[in-house]
Design brief:
The protein is 54% helix and 11% strand. The protein is of the alpha+beta class and 173 residues long. It has a domain of 118 residues. Helix 1 packs across helix 2.
Length: 173
């Protein structure tokens, strides 16, 4: 695993870690036969260990990023499996607004995760999205006022800019 670039902003570093975990998990998934959600989660855990060895983030930060990535993949895969829609619809905005590499990685990982969706649906619904967490690309909607927050790359979830609430759900086009 390559070192993470050294941004000045700690939130940017966590966003880069999210992308790195996703990249490592998808690359490793190409090498194995079992493409189920649990297998992908194990690959994320393995990538988390590699990231931990770099020593650029605390164990707590790495655990959080890993959890955020798993949550987002469950959410995307759940949406795709239940609706039959494509990944771009889950994002809630034009695919051209996120990088090709990130779009391809996330789409591949979400496709692999669809197998275990029914078991994880409840967890995803309970987890939701909260201020202070990191989320992958897509649109989150404030649970209190309906304000939309658009994420074109992994990023920190701020309080709602309209009402300052701290809980959100994903918008599907």
């Amino acid at each position: 695993m390559k070192d993470l670039p050294n941004p000045k902003d700690p939130v940017e570093l966590i966003g880069q870690a999210y992308e790195r975990l996703l990249e490592e998990a998808v690359e490793d998934a190409k090498k194995i036969e079992d493409k189920s959600g649990p297998a992908l989660h194990r690959l994320i855990d393995n990538a988390r260990e590699k990231l931990s060895e770099l020593g650029e983030l605390t164990t707590e930060e790495i655990d959080q990023v890993s959890g955020y990535l798993k949550r987002d993949l469950r959410d995307a895969a759940n949406y795709i499996a239940e609706t039959g829609e494509e990944f771009r619809t889950w994002l809630g905005f034009d695919l051209s607004l996120i990088g090709d590499r990130l779009r391809e990685l996330f789409s591949q990982a979400a496709d692999q995760t669809t197998i275990e969706l029914k078991q994880l649906q409840e967890q995803a619904e309970q987890a939701g999205y909260h201020t202070g967490e990191i989320t992958g690309p897509g649109t989150l909607v404030c649970d209190k006022c309906g304000e939309e927050l658009h994420f074109y790359k992994p990023g920190h979830i701020p309080p709602c800019p309209k009402c300052h609430a701290t809980t959100f759900h994903r918008k599907f086009s």
